[in-house]
Design a protein that fits this description.
Layout (H helix, E strand, L loop, with lengths): L1 H22 L3 E4 L5 E8 L3 E8 L2 E8 L2 E3 L9 E16 L7 E15 L6 E9 L2 E8 L10 E4 L2 E4 L3 E5 L13 E4 L5 E2 L3 E5 L4 E7 L7 E7 L2 E6 L14 E2 L2 E7 L2 H5 L3 H4 L15 E6 L1 H4 L15 H13 L4 E4 L28 H10 L3 E7 L4 H17 L4 E5 L7 E4 L5 E4 L4 H16 L3 E4 L15 E4 L18 H6 L29 H10 L4 E3 L4 H5 L2 H9 L4 E10 L3 E8 L5 E6 L5 E6 L9 E8 L13 E8 L4 E6 L4 E8 L2
Bound molecules: 1-deoxynojirimycin and calcium ion (CA).
Amino acid sequence: MRTGRMILALLALSASLPALAQAAAPVTATSPDGAIAVEVKIVEDGRVAYSISRKGQPVVTTSRLGFLFTDVAKLDRSLAITGQDVRTSDDTWQQPWGEWRQIRNNYRELKVHLAETVRLKRQFDVTFRIYDDGVGFRYEVPDQTAMHGANIAEELTEFNFASDGTAWWKPAFLWNREEYLYNKTPLSAVATVDTPLTVKLADGTHVAVHEAALVDFSGMALARSQGTSFRAALTPGSGKAKVIKIGSWSTPWRTLIIADNAAGLYTSHLMLNLNEPNKLGDVSWFKPGKFNGVWWNMIKGEWTWARGPKHGATTANVKRYIDFAAANGIPNTLVEGWNVGWDGDWFGDGNAMDFARPTEDFDAAELASYARSKGVRLIGHHETGGSASHYEAQFDKAFKFAADHGEMVVKTGYVTDAAQIERVDPDGSAYREWHEGQWMSNHFIRVAEAAAKYKVAFDSHEPIKGTGLQRTYPNWVAREGSRGMEYNSWSGKNPPEHEANLVFTRMLEGPMDFTPGVLSLTGEKGSAILSTEAKQLALYVVLYSPVVMAADTPENYAQHMDTFKFIRDVPTDWEDTRVLNGEVGDYVTMARKVRGGKDWYVGGIGDEEARSVSFDLTFLSPGVKYDAEIYRDGDDADYRTEKRHSVAIEKRVLTSADKLTLRMAPGGGFAIRLKARK
Ligand code: NOJ
Ligand code: CA
């Protein structure tokens, strides 16, 4: 019996020998500029592996590819490379809104055809898109009988870094989803992490590992196996498989942005380019802009979402917020707790939420017409409490209600612990899903499509990670997905380095609804926020979203109208973005040109250390004079004292020939408006 099996195995091996011999040579391709090279080869036991080098230096060494399935044999050995296709593509497309108008998409594609030489003889491709600033690759599996029932138990993709380095990361699969502070550790001490994982290798090369176009798949975390070696760890599904697939399928793109420095990570367009073009057609109905809203007082515990004596979203309160928005050119006002469903314990259970039924003290029709008369639109909040199926059942009435009341944007929320999303199928069977699982990846596409029918955009809190899908669904305008301003109200506040971490980690995913601008610098019970006032202004330039909140209350802003002027002036839609300097978790300075305009805005943020930064203004148009308004930390500013409010506001005339040196206080920053003279 044993001998018979051995003979069979030998026969199978010899039958496949010609294919193996043919496959022995590795296949390679480089980025258009030749700097990045990808190599794919068959290693021991017929396993397929890739490696990546940049400027001749290894970045990712031999890393295996493959899958475990719940129902059929794994796919990772006895493989041969049966062919390859290489092509180059170079075109430019426009973003309807964003940080850059023009996006160049220039890559070389290497499609590697693979087949099992024995047994099931399954076939698949791995497609690499090699950019001058990184690599994306995905598996493409055609429909084939031997894969029927092939539900994915795990993806075996490895990311074996060539050297140790420093990593900035937050843990994956814990109860508070993506809302953890960043750790800074040696790469060789990282745990199981959410992506993007940002790494500075020993030679200074910066790498960010993430994924693009997460659709109909579960989110990928990274688990360190040993040393500097990582493997994909897919988010669980609610059944035995992490991902369920029928017919032909492909994975999201596994992405590595690779750059000389931190700035180069930020300015990469790889994430957007690896997504499908706009599927929604004309979205010019969505106008980027700021919003204020009935919010910070709830986060501070002074008002409530629920009905009662401290209810925030009353007609009278909302009118005051609309008045403030109108008086200051803010086009939107957020309302939270405007609808029925908040009175019980909504954390983890939103089944009482009705997204078309206002509370008795919120006169929706009156407020819609009041807002309209003042040139303001309401942003309605849809808190699902994680009851995602309950929300889906209301899509039509919810988005119709929003559109009927002049709302261009809704804010959605999924407040429940990780893995506690409630999914109820049409047959009544109920499941608990992860926020980043396959079912939720599809849920968010359903939200995008349902909202688009009513010309409504959305900003999702407690979301799935951002993977560039705003290119395909440009009404998915923002998301939270990290610790935002709200943590500055509570105990355990964001430390001063948090935003300098965000820029080179979370912000690589796309827009974040951070809700900056708390100029009062106070959270609940009068507690101090760990920031200077000038830094709050800088966040409007540094943390991008097409919809940005002026998060403080009208009463608080009334005490800070000199600095509030910057918030009034700063737009939320850009023609161009430059990162002038930066180190992950330490500091960053960004310059952005107004979409369709000539003016520039500059923002700089630091961490807990005081530091000076110098930068030239060569991004400005030569020969043009700019009236500059500089909001910088006062000489005595310090986030640890009452002097956190010390701001120096200076006016200067600057040109592209000028160089600025600005000092940031501990916990500080600066913001500059550069208005071009006609
Ligand atoms: C958490 C969100 O981040 C916050 O903005 C919202 O106000 C609360 N959930 C209530 O939905
Ligand atoms: Ca730091």
